[in-house]
Amino acid sequence: YQRRVRGTTNEGWKPTQEWFDSWHSKLPIKTITQLLQYLVPKISQLISGSAADGSEILEFLSKTTLVGVLPVPHRIIVRKYQENVPTLIWFTTYLWGVIYVRSSSPPLFYGTDIRLFVVAES
């Protein structure tokens, strides 16, 4: 079985530094990199200094603060709800859907994990 990618097989494709640099610079990994640059030397020192087991490392991580190490998070912007036609239609449809599902006899989807609507909270 060979998978074709743009007319070539996977056996003939080799990653290059140019290819790696083209997508690597676009990854949002600055925070993770800063975290690792701070923690890896400390954990390496903890491991090499003694026969540290997992519980000692977990204790170290639970007591370590990252205040001042990681960048300050962006300000949270609170926006008030502004009524418009699409959201009004969505809320009305959602409300009537909930009323219908909850008031049907026997209740539809009662005792199951099926959900007709999902409200995403951010």
Give a written overview of the molecule.
This protein has helices at residues 17-24, 30-49, 54-63, 85-103, and strands at 4-5, 8-9. The model has no long low-confidence stretch (mean pLDDT 81). The two termini are 43 Å apart. The longest helix has 20 residues, at 30-49. The chain has 4 helices and 2 strands; from the N terminus they run ββαααα. Strands 1-2 form a two-stranded antiparallel ribbon. The chain is mostly helical and 122 residues long. β1 and β2 form a beta hairpin.
List keywords for this structure.
mainly alpha, 122 residues, 47% helix, 3% strand
- Which structural class should the secondary elements be placed in? mainly alpha
> What distance separates the N and C termini?
43 Å
What's the number of extended β-strand segments?
A: 2
Order of helices and strands: EEHHHH
The amount of helix comes to 40-55%
Binned strand content = under 5%
